[in-house]
Amino acid sequence: MKKETRITHQPQVPLVKGNRPLTDPTYRSVKFTFPTIADSMTAEARSSGFEYTRDSNPTTRQLELLCAELQDRDDAIAVGTGMASVWLALLGNLSAGDRVVIFLESYRPTRIAVRKFLPRYGIAFEMVSLHDRKAVESAFVLEDTKAVLFESPTNPMLQIPDIEAILGLAEQHGVATILDNTFAGFHNHGQYAIDFFVHSLTKYAGGHGDVMGGIVIGSADKIRRLKPLAVNMGATLDPGAAYYILRGMKTYYLRYERHCQNAQALAEYLVSRPEVAEVIYPGLKNHPDSALAAKQMHDFGGVLSFSLKNADRERTWAFIDALQLHVTASSLGSTDSLAAPVQLYLGTDLSDEEQAEAQISESTVRLAVGIEHIDDLIADVAQALDATFS
Amino acid sequence: MGFSTKQVHAGVRPDPVSGSILTPVFQSTTFVQESVDQYLAKGYSYSRSGNPTVAALEEKIAVLEDGAACTCYSTGMAAIQAVIQATLSAGDHAIISDVAYGGTYRLCTTVYARYGVEFSFVDTSDPDAVQAAVRDNTRLILTETPANPTLKLTDIRAISDIAQAAGIVHAVDNTFLTPFYQRPLELGANASIHSTTKYFDGHNATVGGAVVADSDALDEKIRYVQNAAGVIMSPWVAWLTLQGTKTLSIRLERQSANAVTIAQFLESHPKVTTVRYPGLASFPQFELAKSQASGFGAMIWFDVVGGVQAGKQLMDSVELCTLAENLGSVETLITHPVTMTHADVEAAERQRVGITDGLVRLSVGLEDVDDLIEDISNALDRI
Predict the structure, then answer these.
(1) Is the pTM of this model over 0.90?
(2) d(Cα B328, Cα B29) in Å, to the nearest integer?
(3) For a Cys staple, A342 with which of A364, B276, B318, B382, CB 3.0–4.6 Å?
(4) Is residue B274 located within the same domain as residue B125?
(5) What would the pLDDT profile of B335-356 be if each residue is shown by its tens digit?
(6) Does B11 contact chain A (CB < 8 Å)?
(7) ipTM of the modeled complex
(8) Do A212 and B336 touch (CB under 8 A)?
(9) Number of domains into which chain A is organized
């Protein structure tokens, strides 16, 4: 073999039998090959062989199997972002002429996908408040309603829907259920008969603010039916990103636990401050649905929202700017604490009336509490409140 | 500035913090804002909406295609999906090349058909057929030239004229030739689409896609989908593709030179009935190949005597050529569409688009051409 050929057909480094790396290699390869066509056509090769990374990849597959197991399901499809997982779950359950139910209390890009794009493809929607029971029921009753997409807790206002009530309506009316479970995490809500879980892996799964990803999790047959759509749409997760997420997952429980402890303590501290009007965190006894949250979840996550008293937009922004450890940035669920002006980042697609119904005002602040030392986080919020209200 | 200068330098400036000559991998999901007031002052908020490493690649590809702007995607199919989603709604109609990549065909027929979008699959090598297929509600013409795997060419200028007269977006899948050899926007197309998995990366290391638009207005529509649907390219993939792109023209030149030699060898071989390569005088659209592109690329197909069985045997006999479905990488890859990529397509449909039983597709790589010819020659002998 000439050297010009050798450089593209590089030497193989075989591992001695039984000698394996503790961390599996990241399969960067786009293509996977078999020695002969016959080998590639065996039942085993066709069911679990790898061909092309857009379809499937061993590193990505490892992540899919891990997340599915943690969520108490059989299978999953990983994609490039959380929004790509929302799209996959929506399009997998809806055709032209169908209707989807979403809630006013949901993530802004999800509302935009449903309200701005789906109608262009003949898919109607019903957007109602979680707390408007009558409207929720009416939405399910509609003949063409085929799917419901909801969050728990909701982003950004930490509302808690009654999952059993939603599942009851869905079963009664033959509606597929999709839960964006990003806030609660893989270890929550698996006991409910939800058809599809979606997660932004960018958040608690990756956990370090260094990688984006999304996943749809469900039973084996439901995921099998969704797979051709995923392959055709091509919203593939980069195997390199899958590796970062797999590495992040090794500290998932440790991090999530600390996020929760910190958020609980920070929420309680905020309640004690006279400048703060209302603190919304499902772990607080004064949360209107704290009992429901405690019934549905093991713990309550690392995000809280609150509003400031006597604060207009300028004062709210000044408070956020005065925070030192909590940096102003989108995202959540990473080791670093972040602060966001809710109306500006997460409410601009809603009318004034809708914002009021969703409890979003110009003085609303969302904190994505990180895993720093709680004393430092409390001190940071304290000094910013002092500086803003002095 | 010459192409090879642009492929090295466009989009990449020394890092202002460290002076690093390469754009760093900005492996960060979110970007800190100096204050709420200065939201987006530095241009970035959240990596789904924009990332500096991905932006560097987008700028480089836009410059190479002489386009207004470029958006990058998780895969080539995601790029096509973004163009379709940006241009077509329920009730709209699109004209798609009848020899379009199978993934494109499936996206149209199994996904968008469910949402009330109409498609006509037309022989776009015939401008009259395209003209006849135009309707009042036609919003997109999607062509692929050379087509995969038949290498049938579409006259980009002729189809762009039809599209322009009717106010239709004409998008060309330019994956096979890349802007080094073919620049669809200069020929009047509105968008050039790439699977960067192929020649841009060139090393079989990433999957990715790109769309270059001829106007900011079209780019904005497509970019909106990129963000809303979240079909983004990861920063690591963008970085690897930036590196790969630096050798795009020299790889393609060598791979094309290898392809010419192999095509000529095949043409003289008794076990080969037909060889199709746009650079051969026997190629039916040789004149168009010469006039609309500055090179012929590195994709060849040929028909072996003996049909399915012979094709299969050839696949199993090659040693250096790798049996795999990708293309455009430094490794020579060989496929037999009837038993591999198009195994699920009905026989009549395969015949219609020109995929015969003995058709073998070769993506010629960077190996020494003597080694490649020896390998193919040995394998042909075993049939």
Answers:
(1) no
(2) 31
(3) A364
(4) no
(5) 988 888 777 778 887 887 788 8
(6) no
(7) 0.79
(8) no
(9) 2
